[in-house]
Write a structure and sequence with these properties.
The protein is an alpha+beta fold. It has one domain. It has 3 helices and 3 strands, in the order ββαβαα. It has a 3-stranded antiparallel beta sheet. The mean pLDDT is about 80.
């Protein structure tokens, strides 16, 4: 499970959104490369203030669809694992 991480995306409006992805893609310890990559690549159609790696998945667990997405990430038969 340590391969799945959550990122908190703070928008300029003050609203927060969360993303999940597999692991710390560029560095196993330093979160900055992953935060930078996600800040450059994601778009919600609004300006992003910051992207920060969550210390635990618990931080994002109250969001709608979190459990469904977590199941998809961890299910060995998931379509995402076949890509």
């Amino acid at each position: 499970m340590e391969d799945i991480v959550a990122l908190k995306v703070k928008l300029k409006s003050g609203e927060c959104r969360y993303l999940m992805t597999w692991g710390r893609i560029q560095d196993s310890v330093d979160p900055e490369p992953l935060e930078t990559l996600m800040a450059e690549k994601i778009s919600f159609g609004v300006e992003i203030e910051s992207v920060t790696l969550c210390k635990t998945l618990q931080e994002a667990s109250k969001e709608p669809l979190f459990l469904k997405l977590f199941y998809i990430f961890t299910n060995k038969n998931s379509v995402w694992r076949k890509l």
